[in-house]
Amino acid sequence: MSRVALVTGAGKGIGAACARALSDAGHRVALLARSRDDLTALARGLPGETLVVPTDVTDETALDAAFAQVEDAWGPVEILVVNAGAGASSPLVETSDEEWQRMLDLNLTAPFRTIRRALPGMTEAGWGRVVVVASIAGKQGAARIAAYSASKHGVIGLVRSGAMEVARTGVTINAICPGYVDTPMTDGSVAAIAGRTGSSEAEARTILERKQPIGRLVTPEECASVMMLCVDNGAINGQGLNVDGGAFQS
Predict the structure, then answer these.
(1) Which residue has the higher pLDDT, 250 or 172?
(2) Torsion over CA: 101, 184, 31, 53 (sign)
(3) Start-end of CATH 3.40.50.720 domains in the chain
(4) 148 carries an active-site annotation
(5) Cα angle value 137/149/114 (rounded, 5°)
(6) Between vectors from CA 132 to CA 127 and to CA 134, what angle results, nearest 5°?
(7) CATH architecture for segment(s) 4-179+219-243
(8) Cα(245)–Cα(242) distance, integer angstroms
(9) How far apart are CA 37 and CA 78, in angstroms?
(10) In 3D, which of 31, 25, 27 has the Cα closest to residue 6?
């Protein structure tokens, strides 16, 4: 059955892979990100019907307008993939208020608002799926990512509490928790490690690969396949599913 899907942060990486998986499965997919060019390029390669909706998800008014645009075109959102996010790296004592707030705004407050906006239509229809792309850093802290890790711990708490509220309505809310994924965000981490340590970017990438027992980076498509599992299986609810090659076992 074809559903109405909305993916935030759809322009690249995990978001683009999730949009592709949903389109391949026959769903209509609304693509949200700040870059119209990225979204347009992605939409051209998808097999199904798409909407390109350039949006800054940290702008509550713009986010509401994006939902309204999708609803006007197709009806209420039935599958929501909350992927928009960013990372930051600095020692806790050097983390500015601005960096701290940026992590919370994008990685926690924007998902909260996005889910809050989508749930009424889902619960009224008696069916819905919400999948948040969190991080293994939402379960396990690490040095130099205090703000990022705090925001991801927070969003997993949001998922768990929200899931309990809607459990009897036909709606599920889950998170996937990737480790190091082969995405532009990880490219940024590689560059930061190289700059900090004086190593080459190839050496820095190897450091990240070795942090995962499988000895490589996770692919965006592997994350997308776990997202699709949450969409297809209504008995999975309130979970944070690790996609990290076994680095954090829970």
Answers:
(1) 172
(2) positive
(3) 4-179+219-243
(4) yes
(5) 95
(6) 160
(7) 3-Layer(aba) Sandwich (3.40)
(8) 8
(9) 26
(10) 31
DSSP 3-state of 216: coil
Out of 67, 100, 148, 180, which one is annotated catalytic?
148
195-239 tens-digit pLDDT: 888 888 888 888 888 888 999 999 999 999 999 999 999 999 999
- C-alpha distances (whole Å) from 155 to each of 26, 70, 79, 103 are 29, 24, 18, 11
**CA gap 98, 80 in Å, rounded:** 29
Contacts 24+ apart (CB under 8 A), 89-97: 89/144, 89/145, 89/148, 89/189, 89/192, 90/144, 90/147, 91/143, 91/144, 92/146, 95/146, 95/147
Average pLDDT, the chain: 95
State if pTM tops 0.90.
Answer: yes
Q: Give yes or no for a contact between 85 and 133, defined as CB atoms under 8 angstroms apart.
A: yes
Token pair in block for residue 19: 């949009």
From the list 72, 157, 71, 156, the residue with the least C-alpha distance to 122 is 71
